[in-house]
Structures are given as C-alpha cells and as structure tokens.
Amino acid sequence: MENPVETEEAICKGRCGESLSSVEDAIYVIGGKWKLKIIIVLQELGSVRFNELQRTIGGISARVLSNELKDLELNGFVKRVVHSEQTPVVVEYISTDYSRTLKSVIMALSEWGRTHKNNIREDVF
C-alpha cells in the first residue's frame, strides 16, 4: 500500500515541475532586456515605424531592435506591415491580438515593480 504522504509529494513535484516548465517557456519567449518594452510600446502607441520605436525605447541599437522584432514576429506578438504602395516604402510594426493576451501579466508586473520600488525606498527589507 502506498504511503499517502509520498503520493502527495509526488503530485506536488509533478505540479511544481509543470509550473517551472511553463514559466521557463514564458520567460524564454518574452524575457530579456527589450522584448516586454517593445510589446508595451506597440500596445500603447499602435502602429509604429522602426526609428520611432527605437527612439521611444531608448538605448537599444538598431541591430538588437531588428533581432528582437524578428523574434517577436516569429512568436506571434508583433506584425510587420509593409506599405509598398508608398515611396519610399514604409514599414510599421503593430502588436497582435495575441500580444494583448499579455496585458494582465504586464499590468501585474508593473504594479509589483511599483510596490517593490516603494519598499526599497522605504527600506522595508
């Protein structure tokens, strides 16, 4: 007969493993210094051209921004729209409906960051 404590521990380890794997996947896709910043700017401003995006974020090189946009496009967070009927050709980036599913996560992170900054200022720790 199985020990109920051992069974419960195995279930907890399984759930913990699933949670860790899910968080790892999420961080892989949206982690790093720039991806969430890009997503936030696109969600706030709507369609944005490359140079405007680079100026708004500040501190990001054109090469890094280009690579991050490609990654975000591959993962369905950003859509690249080319207006070839105009001269010169205009390229804009917009957030997708899928990227807007991160809105609650971004808001929670923002609130947590604000609280954490206040705790540090007040030397709560």
UniProtKB/TrEMBL annotation:
Domain (HTH hxlR-type): residue spans on this chain: 16-121
GO MF annotation terms: DNA binding
Record has DNA-binding as a keyword: yes
Keywords: DNA-binding, Transcription, Transcription regulation
InterPro entries: HTH_HxlR, WH-like_DNA-bd_sf, WH_DNA-bd_sf
Cited Pfam families: HxlR
Name this polypeptide is given: Transcriptional regulator
Taxonomic source organism: Chryseobacterium piscium
